[in-house]
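Summary for the funding panel

The consortium committed to producing paired sequence-structure records for every protein in the target list. Below we show the first two records in order, beginning with the earlier of the two.
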Amino acid sequence: MRLRLELLLISFIFITAACVKKTKQETKVNIAPIAHKILVEEVIQATSYTYVKAKEDGMVKWIAIPKREVEVGKTYYYNNALEMNNFESKDLKRTFKSIYFVQALTEQESPGVLNNNSPHNSKKTELKKKDLIAPVGGGLTIAGLYSDKDSYAGKIITLSAEVVKVNNGIMGKNWIHVQDGSGDLDSKNFDLTVTTKDTVKVGDKVTVTGKLALNKDFGVGYVYTVIVEDAKLSK
């Protein structure tokens, strides 16, 4: 059964019970003390996710998190989760009768900070600005898109950029970060998140064509000031 969310480390988890404070490209989440405590019994590493078999309040359950190291026999904590039934992991070639998608596991019972620059990644990634790439036909740049985003909202935009980060196969989409050298690190208007069905790799120079969405909220901690959805990427 195909998972239909708009994201895990999109959608409910990633989803509920949080007061989201939106600030440019980083979203801080004020959440109650972590409510769930688990003891890890088994760990399976896949391409993008870590699958954890754990015991919580005497009940054994499977949990999926963005890929990270998890130790068998260790205690971890988490907040909200989304249960999916009959979830098929194509990576593992296995169907889980019940599995809980969790944004992150922590080793301490305390809230944290979520970063919308990197969906499905529990650690903040500092994306470094790339060298300038000539815009398509001398047109739109990423910095220009941010500065005039209201004018482009809901419209199809096209720009040229370099792929700097890739997360494939998350909630039926590939999540790409692109940069074109415009903008600056302090203003955080240099990096653009794109969802697509196309496959690319880090370092590819691509032309991005897709619809611009503003203030897209996929759930707890995943709020995008600017995002290009269902884009076509051509090299």
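The next record, for a separate protein in the list, is shown here:
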Amino acid sequence: MAKDKPKSTKGPPNKHLSARITFLQQAALHLAEVQSETASQITSTVTSEHFRYTYNGQSRDSKLQDIADRTFGADRSPPNGLSTHLTLQLRQVALKSQIRLQPSTKHISCKGCHAVLLDGSSCKRYTENLSCGGKQPHADMTVHECTICGTKKRFPANVMRQLRKSKRAMRSGSTTIS
């Protein structure tokens, strides 16, 4: 007689790819946070050097501009190469394996430049209402604007999404149509 096969629990079909996507997301977030902390430390160093060099004959603003250009480059945005690369890899793995990304995963990265969006460092968040004079409260939109490329993402503010049809049917119980 043949041995009975143990019943396997159903899991995601590509568990290793889901784990890879999760790892890439966590690594990109961690690197972006470390880079933003480093950028804030460099900015405080730049301002302290600015006050040290005020007696050299150059104006304060031009000296500060030179230090910022040497530190960050001409565009004065902090370097974010590795976290951007990991975010790009995350999207490519999801596309190639046809795994749907969760909305929270999509919200953390810019669609234009693939930078990780962190409040205050690489992202500006504000609420706008483009209805007639802003009178309609249900038209509030939360806007996430990337400070690197200027891409804007708009999400409805304070709105609960409708449950999926299968979950709505389970919640209301079995309703019979006669």
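Regarding this second record: Residues 15-161 form one domain. The longest strand covers residues 123-129.
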